[in-house]
Amino acid sequence: MKFLFNCQNEMLMKSRFVFFILSAVICLTTSFNNYPVYQKPPKIRTIIIDPGHGGADHGTHGLISVEKDITLDISLKLGKAIQQEFPDMKIVYTRTSDVLPGGGDDYRPALHVRADIANKAKGDLFICIHCNSNGKPAGGYYAKRVIGYKKRMEYVGRGKKKRKKLVNAPVYESYWMTNTKTGTASYIWKADRSGFKGEAINQAEEGGEDIEDSTGVTFDMTSPEAKIRTLLYEKKFFSNSALFASMVQDEFEKSGRVNDGVLQRDKGIQVLQATGMPSVLIETGFLTNKEEEEYLNSDKGQDEVVQNILDALKKYKDTLENNTNNNPGTGNAPGSR
User: Fold this and answer.
1) Which of 105, 119, 188, 223 could be 241's S-S partner, Cβ–Cβ 3.0 to 4.6 Å?
2) CA-to-CA distance for 252 and 284, rounded, in angstroms?
3) Averaged pLDDT for residues 47-71
4) Are 123 and 92 in contact (CB under 8 A)?
């Protein structure tokens, strides 16, 4: 009898144990099914839009417009389009009116203000909007060409050796030269200006103070390890700048615009190398060309330019956020958030 009781007690305990295990499994399964899927945060959260020139700095002159007005129009439309496409994205403008960033009439301090705005906002991408010029008068100009020669008596030599001589003098003709240069281009910072870019990256880290990296480890930005990490980010920012610029140019070309490519200036571009993030200056077209200037002044032209840049941004964002090998991993400077 005692044996039977012990067996029943043992079976009851086993049943309770099995019930407990099954309950735990059901609980865990239900919890995992209801738990939200983890998603990596977007790598592009803040975009800086920089309308070139402004105020007393007119930029390039066309026949009917000046660069500062067109760059502002396109920039404001671009920011609105990005906001509609990506409602959670933050847009920061370096100017929203016909005033140089920081005020004043001198464009040089305004360049520093533009970079400061971008770095303090901890932007993930800096887009600078400009219009181009080929250095010739807008629309067209008179040029001269040789159409022949005629004999002409001229004095040659000096002092006592001065004498008359019959020479063939060129005969010139003036003719009207239409300014036909058109095209788009995107500039990225000069690779040999990496030291400046590194300083900008550190500036984006609140003056180069101690920061935390993605693992939560605090380290000194002046340490050798931090300097090496800065160099890595310089390279990544350069490649990301080139990537976005090439995507912009591809979109321009698809829409029928002339593609002058992704370029670098020998002397560098200050506003690009002073911003601690991927940065691109987009030349949207030539105001010195009559037809292209009219295009850039029209709603149709501006809307197409905006759409081209937006389409490039979508591809760039998708590439960065879905590329698992894109270390160090963000468009931001290290520890910037």
Assistant:
1) 188
2) 9
3) 97
4) yes
